[in-house]
Design brief:
CATH superfamily of the largest domain: HUPs
Number of domains: 2
Strand content: 5-15%
Bound molecules: tryptophanyl-5'AMP
Order of helices and strands: EHEHHEHHHHEHEHHHHH
Helix content: 40-55%
Number of helices: 13
Strand order of the largest sheet: 1-2-3
Radius of gyration: 21 Å
CATH class of the largest domain: Alpha Beta
Number of strands: 5
Largest sheet: 3 strands, parallel
CATH topology of the largest domain: Rossmann fold
């Protein structure tokens, strides 16, 4: 029996090089060995204010980006979260078991609450419970994520404990986070003290998967580095350069020492020019495939429907057990 893997991305902004390196490149590797479910977390996106038209366009765009990045709809179950209502049902039941104190500790909540002072809604606070429901519905073994999701993953495991204390064991599988050894935290290009984020207001901070090649080039060339010239990996004193070297290393398979050797006696500018070329050559075919897929919304609709039906069929059994354990009476079908 293949092990089961699930992961997703919130539908805000545009998928970035950080999402690709930290998560999606691992998803594509895992799809051959594991039984994988990959989804678009569109309900999570509603925790911050969304323009309905933009959200709708983005759902198609993200789905097409997943496919263009190499996720195969035949091998995997690729679906949109809101098209499988069991996620929200389970989320409510788990919300009623999760102590507020645990949610208060979530650093992402604190950061987002500071950024969206005018819209600190209850969904932003309970967001990690919905994430736990996403995972627990499918009896998942492993969840490939970037470093920033580790705390949410721990909460998902805690929630299994809250459930078992109240209702006993045997329904949910305890999921493990799978965080890649390299590239689990790609930083912002202009401010390497913070992570590269797809919802950053300053577009120069991130590279979008579907950015025009000229834009990618410009963003890398203008990335913040220090005033020194020696290419050396030094996270503490040369954070901007270290971030570029990290991207370089993940995308070429070269170690930091190899990169240092390659640029001995050369300036940062040389590395930036080469890195731009490396990133552009990886992203250009993805962008072309993406633009092609976006011309055929009917095809995307068909795949989304098939994905949602497969996901619903797989999660139904868990929800049925949850209804029985909690004393709720499932509707007879
Ligand atoms: P999201 O949309 O913020 O990010 C999607 C994935 O990309 C990783 N990531 C990064 N990795 C390296 N460097 C970066 N700068 C970087 N930025 C993002 C994230 O760690 C993530 O793996 N809450 C989740 C979505 C979600 C989910 C789930 C994930 C909802 N339910 C269930 C797994 C399982 C999120 O907002 O990811």
């Amino acid at each position: 029996m293949k092990k089961t893997i699930l992961s997703g991305s919130t539908v805000t902004g545009n998928l970035t090089l950080g999402n690709y390196i930290g998560a999606i490149s691992n998803w594509t590797k895992l799809q051959n060995e594991y039984d994988c479910l990959y989804f678009l977390a569109d309900l999570h996106a509603l925790t911050v204010q969304q323009d309905p038209k933009i959200l709708k366009d983005r759902i198609y765009s993200f789905y097409a980006q997943y496919l263009a990045l190499g996720l195969d709809p035949q091998k995997n179950t690729i679906f949109v979260q809101s098209q499988v209502p069991y996620h929200t049902e389970l989320s409510w039941i788990l919300t009623c078991l999760t102590p507020m104190g645990y949610l208060n500790r979530m650093t992402q909540f604190k950061e987002k609450a500071e950024r969206h002072v005018k819209n600190v809604n209850a969904g932003l606070f309970t967001y990690p419970v919905l994430m736990a429901a996403d995972i627990l519905l499918y009896q998942v073994d492993m969840v490939p994520v970037g470093e920033d999701q580790r705390q949410h993953m721990e909460l998902a495991r805690d929630i299994v404990g809250f459930w078992e204390n109240r209702y006993g064991p045997g329904i949910f599988k305890l999921p493990e986070a799978y965080v890649g050894k390299v590239g689990a935290r790609i930083m912002s290009l202009q401010d390497p003290s913070k992570k590269m984020s797809k919802s950053d207001d300053n577009e120069k901070n991130f590279i979008a998967i579907i950015d025009d090649p000229k834009v990618v080039e410009k963003k890398i060339k203008s990335a913040t580095t220090d005033s020194d010239t020696v290419v050396k990996y030094d996270l503490e004193n040369k954070a901007g350069l270290a971030n570029l070297m990290n991207i370089y290393s993940v995308m070429t398979g070269k170690s930091f020492e190899e990169i240092e050797k390659l640029y001995e006696g050369k300036m940062y500018g040389h590395l930036k020019v080469d890195l731009a070329e490396i990133v552009v050559s990886t992203l250009t075919p993805v962008r072309e495939k993406y633009l092609d897929l976006m011309k055929n919304q009917d095809y995307l609709d068909k795949l989304m429907n098939e994905g949602a039906m497969k996901a619903e069929a797989r999660s139904e059994a868990t929800l049925k057990k949850v209804y029985e354990a909690t004393g709720l009476v499932p509707r007879k079908r």
